[in-house]
Amino acid sequence: MGQRRRDLTPDASPLAHWGSELRAWRDRRGMSLTKLGELVRYNASYLAKVERAERKPSAAMARACDDALGANEALWRLWEKIERAEAGGDGRGHVASSSGHVASSVATLDVVGFDPGPSDEEVTLPCRTADGRIVYVSLPRRAFIGMGMGLGAAAAAAPAAFGAPQVSPAPAVVHRAANANPVQHLNQLRMVLIDSDNMMGPRPVIPTVEAQLNVIYQLRQEHTGADGRALAKVHAEYAEFAGWLYQDAGELRTAQYWTDRALELSHTAGDHELAAYVMARKSQLAGDARDPLMALDMAQAASGLVRPRSRLEAVCATYAAHGFALRGDTNGCLRSLDEARTLLTRLDDDPSSPWGVWLDAPYIEVQRARCLADLGQHAKAAEAFRAEIDRLPAGFHRDRGVYLAREAAALAGCGEPEQAAAIGMQALAVAADTQSARIVRELVTLDTSLAAWSGVPAVGEFRESFDASIVHQA
Fold it and tell me: Does the predicted TM-score (pTM) go above 0.85?
């Protein structure tokens, strides 16, 4: 006998109304939660919680459900109405921050307010379905972080995670001393966190960065004038860094939120160079999301703001090249990459500018390799990746993993399965170390490409190891 489904109370809240409308559209289409979940690539148990107003649907989920159910934007418009109503309130959300860390030295202050952030985002994970396909599923981000789930632990821990309670973050606490310079301290801490991210990946760093964002938000309530603008600049820098961390963690909606926030704050601080850099980063983020129009728009808009013959101008040209590649424009792509290389030889740079200092000829060439792969020139891409990986400094552990995974995918694309599998195993080890979703997404592509050669021992070993590292359909 089937279990009687729970009655809904649409008048209880706007979210309850949305959930009841979702169920009504499912009933109208004769679609189960399981079937809807397959279409929108969200776990059915999570969709059930959205129907019962126990979880708030994200924008992506609302749009996907509307499309899958043929609701003619009825669900989408209702979701937008809820968002507008919530924005009319005090606008404060909360972020998943760690209560135990605020790096500073002296006595405590009272509870602080929070820098508004996404309140109910989800972690997207690759999941092996019963028929062997890999799809992406979502679970609450706080449950994921609270469980300490890494790549290797995902398969064992994920079934419990879908029903795990959310961990409520405690508010950050500000520590300060008389005559202390918080801007200098926060800048020094950010550099330490950047080094930590390079070696260990984003997950260990995210709680600390979000704690500092909360601290900065409260400090800005107390300072105006030059001090206030200096804190706004630091706020923008931390928001941009948070956007990068979430981008590498594969949570692109949250990455977009923090990158947008960084752009707003850079204008608040009156720092036009920082604003241009953040716009270039928005181009990079759009490239990772495989959105060629946004990648090109943001790179070209940023290019119009930067100082001619600056390193940032070369950054913009590099990210524009990826936009052209995603659009299939080989000439535009190669022209932009060559422009970036030429700009590097003619720099009239301000040595005090911190933005884009990592851009050098090897970085442009590894982006060339990525573009060649997107353009289908796999053999050239694999050769270019190998040359640049060999030149990569030892400290860039996570980036090495990303490039190894892309090299492996390129090798698979040009019919070299054994070599692709061997390099894929190296990338998988880095992914386990750093929990970088950018590496995992490249390995999903590699795993799919290698399926035709499953009988090759090296390929079988890689696919078995990768399969053990991802969640499986219950």
Answer: no
